[in-house]
Amino acid sequence: MNSLVLAVIGIALMIAGYLLYSKFLAKKVYRLDPAFTTPAHELNDGVDYVPTNKFVLWGHHFTSVAGAAPIVGPAVAVIWGWLPAVLWVTIGTIFFAGMHDMGALWASQRHKGQSMGMLSGKYIGPRGRALFLVVIFLLLLMVVAAFAVVIKNLLINTPSAVIPVWGAILVALVIGQMIYRWKINLLLTTIIGVVALYTLIIVGNANPIVLPDPILGMTPATFWIVALFVYAGIASLLPVWVLLQPRDYINGVQLFIGLGILFGSVLLSAPAIVAPAINHNVPEGTPPLVPLLFVTIACGAISGFHGMVSSGTSAKQLDKETDARFVGYFGAVGEGLLALGAIIAATAGYRTLADWEAVYTAFNEGGVAAFVEGGGNILNAGLGIPLGLSATILATMAVLFAATTMDTGMRLLRFVVQEAGELAKVRIGGAVGTIIALVIAVGLVFSLGADGEGGMLIWPLFGTTNQLLASLTLSVIAVILLRKRINPLPVMIPLAVVMVMSIYALIIQLGTFYAEQNWLLLVLDVIILIASLWVALEAFIAMGKARGGVDEDADDPVARVEG
To answer: Which residue ranges traverse the bilayer (predicted)?
Structure first.
């Protein structure tokens, strides 16, 4: 198979999904109303609730949900062959992810920007809400802790990415001022930001930063992790328009330029895919394709973390309800395109099948390293970009997206701590909530030593937990649709597929953790399984009760008309 053919087919299908299926969802399922007053206007506080241009919000939302996961997951999953990965990414993006992200965004902004955890209390019940928050908390903890380790490793292994990664923060601060304070034209602001970002990449490539050992009494690994958490803590407390939003926006534009460079290189060089379509010679110890494919590729097909971002931050910034189609669904399309690019880089970026097999010697091999190496080879062959600069561009892309997910994850983790305080009838302020979240996350990261590898301790549960959370989010959306007397079938079919595959995978992992005598992951697996099954049971009971019912929310005009 030629990678150019694969790229054209994949891109065409995802764009068609946005033009056709998202339009159907907007009109017939979610019934987006341009006259609806969104929480960003109703509750505008200049910190979390901020009416935002849909292009800027798309950038913030897209880069928050993207992270390194749509690179890592697909670049690992090709060990089963490129065909299953491409099919799941394409079908998942069109019929699963776009609908899920858009639905979570719609449901939250129809309820004053409340998170899915809060909505689960209203539509499923108080027990469901408490258990939902347990799953959400564990997922966010995995994301924040693991991404800190991923970023640290990339900064150490690719020192040319240090200057652009940290310089991007200064660029974002200026972009925020240009948009909101100085009211400079968005197109001009975007051009200035992109030029500054790519200038930093060129400067960083010429001036790699290797930290001395020790530095301030710490190893480079410890220093980078501490610096990342200090940044994430500060970013989670700043008004969203000051740093997070402009940083994510300019990173979103940068990603599409990066994808354009990657797919442009595929167009010019048309490299052959050397990996098999279906790998019948997988390394020993590789788990079965079904159900593990569906949890290995989470971000890039459907991801529960997206529902947390949609309802945790993006819903509070939606200017018009109709913007949910572009921000939510097209945000998922952007991530699907990134996953498709990762698959092509990891399967067509090597000269021979033997070279590819030398990388994929065991399950969980490949990942970001395969994306950077394979993608760098494609950029070099297609556009003649030197291998060193190609690696810097792709590594910077991966780090910037991991960082934007980490800082958004920290903000969401703070929200969950505050919501847990509400359940316990204890009021927790933003600063205190952030400190609590930081202490727990930092404690996990350094639990196995100063190198921070403790951050990967519970990561093996990410895929299953993430997909279970997606199914639970879909169950809340299904209950809302049923109470509005709207056909929930576009939600129910993906809900059934994701829930069955996730629970199946979680049960398989139970056996693996028991065989390895990994008691921590075994206990967490059992907790997540019980909590998820309990919430799912209560959700299905709520769906039965919701048939023929009416959602009487005062902030929902559709409900008021029906009521």
So the answer is: 6-26, 62-80, 86-107, 128-151, 163-180, 187-211, 223-244, 256-278, 290-309, 329-350, 383-405, 426-450, 456-482, 489-507, 519-537
